[in-house]
Amino acid sequence: MDSAHTTTLDNYRLIVTRSNATEILLRPHGNGWCLPSVEIPQGQRVAEQLTAELYAKWESRGYCLLVPNLGAGLPQCSVMEATDLEQISPAGTCWKPLDVTTCAAVDPAEDRTVIEKSIKQWAEFRREPSQAPFTKPGWLSELLAWAQEQLAQRGAQLTGSYAQRNASPRFSLIRLETDDASAVWFKATGEPNLHELAITACLARLFPAYVPELLGVHAAWNGWLMREVPGRTLDDVRELGTWRQTAEDLARLQILSIGKEDELLEGQCKDLRLPRLFVQIDPFIDRMRGLMAAQEKQTPAPLTDPELTRLGNHLRQACSSLCEVGLPDTLGHLDLNPYNIVVSPTRSVFLDWAEGRVTNPLLAFEYFREHFHRNFSKDTRAMKALVAAYIRPWQSLLSPESLERAIEISPLVAVFAFAVGSHAWQSPEVLLQPSVAGCFRSLTRRMHRETVQIARRREPCPA
After folding, report:
1. How confident is the model at residue 84 (pLDDT cuts 50, 70, 90)?
2. pTM of this structure
């Protein structure tokens, strides 16, 4: 078999409950019982895969309540709740009371340990329902009732069909079908993305043509209901014309946000305007000195102190040069990837605004351009056309020459803005987290490479 086409699978034990967690679904095993198990591909949405497999193997509809962390040596597991309560036991299974007697009859012992540890973790979450609302049995029924109230005002009805995409104690993403050939989405967020609801509501009010329609807010869950946007996500599009249109739509959205900085900041968009970035350069460089000195691997080589000093100088110069161009601060998005953009023949809609910022507009375009480069890396003419499409709406404010000069500088500043966009780099524990420290070292080396590229572009051509 060609290894390039093999898919790595993860095995999950399923603790499927019903009737307010008083019953558990088990399979006969010898003289006792064992847990159902499924295999799902790595790197895909776990909740979506598990619910699909539960139905495919046992024709049981359900949703995830918790994916416990059982530690090394034990299989992965998901606690789920069945929604088809009137269904008899699926073929090859049996509903049993979730009690000590049933657990004692579970064999192999590994399954018994999985149940005991999972139920213990689940009980801990359920003691704080306001902090872990999506571990509570029956929360889906509550959601459906609430969503129906929001839709009734618009003459629509839920069909009862749903697709759970993400699941965790404080986060949720689920698609609910309606009777008018469309669907709605419910999303809820916890720390560190509590602010996403405020940003979403702000943008829905200010720029309704560029974000999904907001249908209702569930304050207790920090969640919201939004209408599904017809179209395709941009990651599924290879037509250059669609990417160019999205670049132009991004520019128009940003131009529309000029003068609304105060409203955006009040709506909890983070302040990453250039003066704010400028004052973080020296502390960031000092922090990176410590991270580079702590690097244990020989490759890639850590940056030296002189290299870091030069990087700080280049960052100050780049921020100052970008300020001099005179572009106004606008709405920005530090996670502007094609999965977060829905396109149709008439418009582009931008999703998932947890990374919403007020900053220089070119930074968001640079993140977009980076994804374009990954999709069309060898097509330099396509990249020029993308830049031209983005620049076009801005030409009423600035000359093409000024914009092109600013775009030359923006990659360096964009990487820096991404690095300091959260407070992680300032945490004293960053040295204790090798993956996080490695990420910041990598970003810093990327900035260093950008300074080298800028210098090369500015070198005079040989006579």
Report:
1. confident
2. 0.92
Q: Is 306 exposed, middle or buried (0-12, 13-18, 19+ CB in 10 A)?
A: exposed
Residue 90: the pLDDT is: 78
Which residues fall within 8 angstroms of residue 11, CB to CB, at 6 or more apart? 37, 38, 39, 75, 76
Where does the chain hold its CATH 3.30.200 domain(s)? 138-227
Q: Dump the DSSP string for 337-368.
A: -GGGEEE-SS-EEE--GGGEEEE-HHHHHHHH
Q: Where are the alpha helices (DSSP H) in 11-164?
A: 46-58, 100-104, 109-126, 139-152
Res 461 pLDDT > 60 = no
Evaluate if residue 32 carries a pLDDT over 60: yes
Location of each CATH 3.90.1200.10 domain in the chain: 232-458
- Planar angle of CA 222, 134, 173, nearest 5 degrees: 65
Compute the average pLDDT of residues 16-43: 93
Range(s) of the chain covered by CATH 3.90.79.10:
3-131
E-state strands within 30-107? 32-34, 37-41, 62-66, 76-82, 94-97
Q: How confident is the model at residue 7 (pLDDT cuts 50, 70, 90)?
A: confident
**81-118 in b/e burial notation, b at 16+ Cβ within 10 A?**
bbbeeeeeebeebebbebeeebbeebeeeebbbbbebb
Measured CA to CA, the distance from residue 82 to residue 321 in angstroms comes to 59
Whether residue 348 contacts residue 246, with contact meaning beta carbons closer than 8 Å, is answered with yes
| Phi and psi at residue 346, to the nearest 5° | -110, -20
Residue 4 has a pLDDT of: 46
> Is the preceding omega at residue 108 within 30 degrees of 0, hence cis?
yes
Rounded to 5 degrees, φ, ψ at 167 are -150, 130
The verdict on domain 138-227 having CATH code 2.60.40 is: no
Residues 6+ apart with CB under 8 A from 37: 11, 12, 13, 14, 75
pLDDT of residue 236: 93
Q: For residue 291, is pLDDT > 80? A: yes
Report strand pairing: 158-167 vs 223-227: unpaired
Q: How far apart are CA 405 and CA 395, in angstroms?
A: 13
Q: What is the largest CA-CA distance in the chain?
A: 88
Write down the CATH number for the domain with range 3-131.
Answer: 3.90.79.10
Q: What is the pLDDT of residues 196-218, one digit of tens each?
A: 999 999 999 999 999 999 999 99
pLDDT above 70 covers what percent of the chain? 97
Q: How many angstroms separate the CA atoms of 289 and 302, rounded?
A: 9
In the predicted structure, residue 6 carries a pLDDT above the cut 70: no
- Output the six-digit token pair for 244: 């160019």
**Cβ contact 432:397 at 8 Å:** no
CATH number of 232-458: 3.90.1200.10
